[in-house]
Amino acid sequence: MNMFQIYWHLWKLNKKYGKFDVYFTVNAFTAWVGNIARHFGLIGKTIFWVWDYYPPYHSNKILLLMRWIYWQFDKATRASNQLIFLNKRLENLRKDINIIPKDINYPIIPIGTDPIKKIKKRNKNKLIIGFLGVLKKSQGLDLFFNQANKIHEKFPELELQIIGAGPHEDYFRKKAKNCVIPVKFYGFVPDDNNVKKIQLGWDIAIALYIPEESNVSYYTDPSKIKTYLSLSIPVIITDVAFSEEVKAEKAGIVINYFNKNQLITAISKLLSNYEIYQKNSLKLAKKYYYKNLYQKMFYPNKD
C-alpha cells in the first residue's frame, strides 16, 4: 500500500510541477521504490542514506523472516545513484556480507545536531534525569529501574522524566508505580519545541541501550544522543556506535550495561564536574552541526 501511495503522489506532483530532481530516503524499502520510479522517469536521482543494520539472525522466527525480507530490499538499493552511511560500521557490515563492493569507499555523513547558543544553568536544588525515545526493553530502562533503590539512597532529590511511547510503555509504567524515585511520563510529544522545553529542565540524559548484536541501536547513530548534546546535557550511555566519541570528548560517561554499579558512579562523576561536562557536550554538538553536514549530501563536490 505504501508503495502505491508513493507512486500516486509522485505521478500527481510530476504532472503539476514536473520531474523531481532528487528522491531521498533512509529506508531500504522506499529506496527500492524510488529506484523503480527513477526507471520510469518520475525522478532524476536517488539517494539512500543508510541508517539501519538488521542482523540477519534472531531468536524470534517472525522477526527473522521480517529481517530476511528487509535484506532483499537492501540488496536492491545498490542501484541507487548515491549511497551514504551514518558511520563506517554500517558500511563495513554490509561489505562483510557482500551487500556492497568491498573496494569502494562510500560517503559517511552522521546525524546532525542543532546546538543551543547558550549553556543552561543547573538548578542545584533538584536533579532530573531524562530519557527520550521509543519505550521498548532494548532501550535499557530496566537498568535504571532495577537500581532505583540504590540511586534514591545516594540522590534522594532525583526525578526521572520520560518522553516517548512504545510497545513496552505499560511495562515501564507498572515498574514506575513501584519505584521509590518519582517518574513522570510525558508520552509522545508531537511538537519538537515542546520536547525541547521539557529537555531543557534535565540535568543528565540517559541512553542505556542493551549492547547485544540483535539490537539495531548497537550499530547505528542514535539520534537521541545528538539531541541531548545539542542542549548541553551530559549523557550516560552504553557501548553504542557513538559512545567512543562521547568518551573521548568527555561529553558524558560510557558505562557497561551489565555492571550495575557503574550507573550510580556515572551520575556522581558527572555531578562532580558538571560544568565541564556541559561545555564538552555543547562543544561536541557543534562539531556535528547539521547545516555543515547535510549540504554534502546534496552538493558532494561543493567546497
**Any idea of the CATH class of the largest domain?**
Alpha Beta
Task: Describe the oligomeric state of these chains in a short phrase.
Answer: single chain
Indicate the CATH architecture of the largest domain.
3-Layer(aba) Sandwich
CATH superfamily of the largest domain: Glycogen Phosphorylase B
Q: What percentage of residues falls in helices of 4 or more residues?
A: 40-55%
Indicate the proportion of strand residues.
Answer: 5-15%
Find the count of extended strands (DSSP E, 2+ residues). Answer: 9
Low-confidence stretches: none
Classify the fold: give the CATH topology of the largest domain.
Rossmann fold
What's the SSE pattern? HEHEHEHEHHEHEHEHEHEHHH
Structural class: alpha/beta
